[in-house]
Design goal:
The structure is a single chain. The protein has helices at 6-27, 37-51, 55-58. It is an all-alpha fold and 99 residues long. The protein has a domain at 6-52.
């Protein structure tokens, strides 16, 4: 079975946008003309676990600051191209631009 096609991603994006617009209309109905206050509250409770930011997304594990340590080491060998010895096994790595 082939992977996800571009059309599938576009369709999924369109469905997400449509759903979000409908949810927005429901929640903006402050006069409760189409949906009751109870329905709005239930919708908020149902969506709270997936829509609202989670504490661990903005803080560290214990609610503290997020600390990131990034280290970088110099390469141990030259990255310049070299000519392999005669008879040596070689391989080719294709890059994004084909070079």
């Amino acid at each position: 079975m082939p992977g996800v096609s571009h059309n599938d991603r576009v369709l999924a994006s369109d469905i997400r946008k449509l759903t979000l617009k409908k949810i927005e209309k429901i929640l903006l109905d402050d006069k409760y003309e189409k949906h009751s206050k109870s329905f709005q509250e239930q919708l908020i409770l149902k969506l709270a676990g997936t829509v609202l930011p989670r504490l661990q997304e903005h803080t560290g594990d214990d609610g503290g600051a997020i600390n990131a340590v990034i280290t970088w080491e110099q390469p141990k060998q030259s990255l310049s191209p070299t000519v392999p010895e005669s008879g040596a096994e070689t391989s080719t790595i294709a890059t994004k631009d084909g070079m």
